[in-house]
TrEMBL record:
GO molecular function: 2-amino-4-hydroxy-6-hydroxymethyldihydropteridine diphosphokinase activity; ATP binding; kinase activity
Metabolic or biological pathway, per its Swiss-Prot or TrEMBL entry: Cofactor biosynthesis; tetrahydrofolate biosynthesis; 2-amino-4-hydroxy-6-hydroxymethyl-7,8-dihydropteridine diphosphate from 7,8-dihydroneopterin triphosphate: step 4/4
Any one GO biological process: tetrahydrofolate biosynthetic process
UniProt similarity note: Belongs to the HPPK family.
Entry keyword set: ATP-binding, Folate biosynthesis, Kinase, Nucleotide-binding, Transferase
Name this polypeptide is given: 2-amino-4-hydroxy-6-hydroxymethyldihydropteridine pyrophosphokinase
Source taxon at top rank: Bacteria
Glycoprotein is among the record's keywords: no
Residue ranges of coiled coil: none
Transmembrane segments: none
Amino acid sequence: MKVKLAIEALKHLPGTQFICCSSLYSSKPMGAYEQPDYVNAVAMINTLLEPLDLLDQTQRIELEFGRERKEARWDSRILDLDILLFGNLQIKSERLIVPHYGMKVRGFVLCPLAEIAPGLQLPDGSIITNLVAVIDKDELTVLV
């Protein structure tokens, strides 16, 4: 499974300490395209990399696994690594938005994030467990 291999690749990023990873979660794909269910996880790392350097490294991993950047936003992809948070920084650039713009409404992000950081408070003051309590989790399955 490519997601497990990608998690292993994160463990070897330069200047980075891998802390932990959530369970794997299966979810229905976003958008109108016919494609297989997604497999999602959230990893926690400590890094000496700057945010854009970390983005470069995660995009390098995606390319190594065969990711092709297509124009259709919700098109199928082999691997998609997102930077959800970078400490308490708030970043808005052409290449990177942190906190990730959709994380507060996506169960496939919030549930694994709450699993590894249940006491987390987002930079805007939102509490992760409060966000998880109100999202739809019906189409989210923890993989064994």
